[in-house]
Task: structure prediction
Amino acid sequence: MRASSPSRVLIVAHVTADCPELVEAVARRAEDGACTFTLLVPARTRGLRRIADPQNDGISEAEDRLELAIPMLSEAAGEPIIGVVGAHEPLAAVQDALNVLGFDEVIISMLSVPESRWFRLELPRKVRALGVPVTEVITSARAVDHSAA
Result:
């Protein structure tokens, strides 16, 4: 009898990528069964940089987020996780990851409802419509270090 392969879990986060709630969610998921994790941080565009350099804006910020979050999330997962920077639009970034890399489930980490752009965009609902199970992790704005954002 052949052992089934581990589930491939895509974590989608930006400012909440290094928050305790996400670390806890990853640890719980790792305890639930064999899985591998990939952290996707969509690049963000803001202000005039969006006009001046739309292709590169937000990439270094996303890379900084990955650098902060990967050690914590890897420890929670019990093994190294992979990090990738995605497209500026979060749904497009998730679609790209699902289509190119293939995942069995998605964890979306976002700010609480009043502060969350992703909630207003209905990102969790739209990702579910792509045919994958989605776990939502909500973090309060107080728990996020906005000076690093």
About this structure: Helices lie at 20-32, 49-52, 59-77, 90-100, 117-120, 123-128. Strands lie at 7-12, 35-42, 82-86, 105-111, 134-139. The chain is about 40% helix and 20% strand.
